[in-house]
């Protein structure tokens, strides 16, 4: 594609939630590949700091906008990431979280329909709830409490998936649904309460490591670069591919094992304390990624230790900046 000034632009891409943790990495990668990127965000949990390195780049625009309101731009692709993702953030204003997922999906799907853009939904492993089958593959319908404290997020995301499918069936919108499993890396919000950011910040300041419940619940942690690669590959599939597809790292760890790793990697003198397990906290989670491997030729390559080392460096840098070093 050529712009008016004859400069070659690969694609015009809208990333909602682009100033958040995942969105900022995605925007960076898309800009670096020569695309023209609009990063749309209301800065609820994201920040300009996450995309500061892109500001001033002619291929990058940062727009303050809330996806619960319609937005119009001529784009070729939309990555719909806008939604708080950590339990404390999405429970902060649960009604707003549902509105963001549902009205955001309607507005972005409406835009995709009008401008004939491909649209990818950042869905989540939370659609499987507290899963009764293990590992989780895409055919599993999930075990979600529809009235619990996590339901604003889980049911919001499930409704968004339903909307994506209906816009596809009724209006032939070209959709892609990616079910993202626990992802970590630089640009995570230090106070988002998620397990990786909590444990690293606690370990770096030699504070108690807070294990909820007995620490035997499991998660499978994916490094951000692997996720971005998977999302871009999913977007690049032909129109017949709609998903849902799991994008995650199948290496499963207990939360206690994660804590032990982080203490070892930081050389911290923190000790463990056990706190109440939050309501409806899933007991185990591990993606079956056979479909992603076969469909996208994708599988994660970053081992947990390597990803944690990079993430720890990021949080150390944040601390040094805060302390004025
Ligand atoms: P994040 O909170 O860092 O990013 C979300 C971004 O969306 C933030 O920049 C926030 O300001 C923005 N946002 C929130 N509500 C908005 C609204 N109404 N209008 C415009 N912008 C809004 O979280 P993240 O981890 O980067 O997650 C990004 C997406 O990926 C989310 O949709 C999340 O559900 C999904 N996801 C993330 C994970 C994970 O492990 N990080 C796992 C599964 C799914
Ligand atoms: N968790 C914990 N201590 C913390 C934060 C989280 O033990 O300080 C646990 C939490 O109860 C859950 C797991 O770590 O079992 C992952 O939590 P997170 O909020 O990161 O993600 P999610 O539950 O949404 O997968």
Helices and strands in order:
Elements (H helix, E strand, L loop, with lengths): L11 E5 L4 H12 L3 E6 L18 E5 L12 E4 L6 H6 L1 H22 L2 E7 L26 H21 L3 E6 L2 E2 L10 H10 L4 E4 L5 E3 L1 E2 H12 L9 E3 L4 E3 H12 L5 E4 L14 H7 L7 H19 L3
Parallel strand pairs: 1-2, 1-4, 2-3, 4-5, 5-6, 6-11, 7-10, 8-13
Antiparallel strand pairs: 9-12
Helix pairs in contact: 1-6, 3-4, 5-7, 5-9, 7-9
The structure holds nicotinamide-adenine-dinucleotide and uridine-5'-diphosphate (UDP).
How would you sum up this structure, described in words?
The chain has 325 residues and is an alpha/beta fold. It has a single domain, classed as NAD(P)-binding Rossmann-like Domain (Rossmann fold, 3-Layer(aba) Sandwich), CATH 3.40.50.720. The protein is 37% helix and 17% strand. Strand 1 (12-16), helix 1 and strand 2 (36-41) form a beta-alpha-beta unit. Helix 3 packs parallel to helix 4 (151-171) and helix 7 (255-266) crosses helix 9. The longest helix has 22 residues, at 94-115. The model has no long low-confidence stretch (mean pLDDT 95).
Please indicate the percent range of residues in DSSP E strands (runs of 2 or more). Answer: 15-25%
Number of domains: 1
The radius of gyration computed from the alpha-carbon positions, rounded to a whole number of angstroms, is 19 Å
**Backbone shape:** globular
Strand order of the largest sheet: 3-2-1-4-5-6-11
Bound molecules: nicotinamide-adenine-dinucleotide, uridine-5'-diphosphate
Main structural class: alpha/beta
Distance between the termini: 46 Å
Overall strand count: 13
Supply the CATH class: Alpha Beta
Name the CATH superfamily classification.
NAD(P)-binding Rossmann-like Domain
Total number of helices: 9
Mean pLDDT: 95
Largest sheet: 7 strands, parallel
């Amino acid at each position: 594609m050529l712009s008016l000034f004859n400069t070659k632009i690969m694609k015009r891409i809208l990333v909602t939630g682009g100033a958040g943790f995942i969105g900022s990495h995605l925007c960076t990668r898309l800009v670096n590949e020569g695309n023209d990127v609009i990063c749309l965000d209301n800065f609820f949990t994201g920040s300009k700091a996450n995309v500061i390195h892109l500001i001033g780049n002619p291929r990058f625009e940062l727009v303050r906008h809330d996806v619960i309101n319609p937005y119009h731009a001529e784009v070729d692709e939309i990555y719909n990431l806008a939604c708080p993702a950590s339990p404390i953030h999405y429970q902060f204003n649960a009604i707003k979280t549902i509105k963001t997922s549902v009205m955001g999906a309607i507005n972005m799907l409406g835009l995709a329909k009008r401008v004939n853009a491909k649209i990818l939904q950042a869905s989540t492993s939370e659609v499987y709830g507290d899963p009764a089958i293990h590992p989780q593959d895409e055919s599993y319908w999930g075990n979600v409490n529809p009235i619990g404290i996590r339901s604003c997020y889980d049911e919001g995301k499930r409704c968004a998936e339903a909307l994506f499918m209906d816009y596809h069936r009724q209006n032939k919108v070209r959709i892609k649904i990616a079910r993202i499993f626990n992802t970590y890396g630089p640009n995570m919000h230090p106070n988002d309460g998620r397990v990786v950011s909590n444990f690293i910040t606690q370990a770096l300041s030699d504070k108690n490591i807070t294990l909820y419940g007995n620490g035997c619940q499991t998660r499978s942690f994916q490094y951000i670069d692997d996720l971005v690669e998977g999302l871009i590959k999913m977007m690049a599939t032909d129109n017949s591919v709609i998903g849902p597809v799991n994008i995650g790292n199948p290496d499963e760890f207990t939360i206690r094992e994660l804590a032990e790793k982080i203490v070892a990697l930081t050389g911290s003198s923190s000790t463990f304390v056990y706190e109440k397990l939050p309501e409806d906290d899933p007991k185990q989670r591990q993606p079956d990624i056979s479909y992603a491997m076969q469909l996208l030729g994708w599988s994660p390559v970053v081992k947990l230790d390597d990803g944690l080392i990079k993430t720890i460096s990021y949080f150390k840098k944040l601390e040094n900046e805060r302390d004025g070093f």
